Amino acid sequence: xxxxxxxxxxxxxxxxxxxxxxxxxxxxxxxxxxxxxxxxxxxxxxxxxxxxxxxxxxxxxxxxxxxxxxxxxxxxxxxxxxxxxxxxxxxxxxxxxxxxxxxxxxxxxxxxxxxxxxxxxxxxxxxx
Length: 128
Prior knowledge:
Layout: E1 3-6, E2 9-23, E3 26-39, E4 45-56, E5 60-67, E6 75-76, E7 81-90, E8 94-105, E9 110-122
Antiparallel strand pairs: 1-2, 2-3, 3-7, 4-5, 4-6, 4-8, 8-9
């Protein structure tokens, strides 16, 4: 399970394949990723933004940016964990994602960048 710790924030990622579907006459592979964000530090933080780099060998790289995650901007007290599930559609059977979260340390307003570890998205039949 990919894991990274940056600025006392731990990010863990778990992925799964969620099948295939036709999208505008093109077969897409659907992947889910579960993210666990843990505040290992001594200060409360708020997740402000996300930035993803998604690699699909058939379509190239794509960047996704926006506020929060899954419609939320969670606040994590020291020792707290926030979990969420989201998804990604690829045209390839193999892809990769990595990124960063922008967080604010609430005690002093300092903005910190937290690395999301790179993780692979692989359709299970691709492994055989």
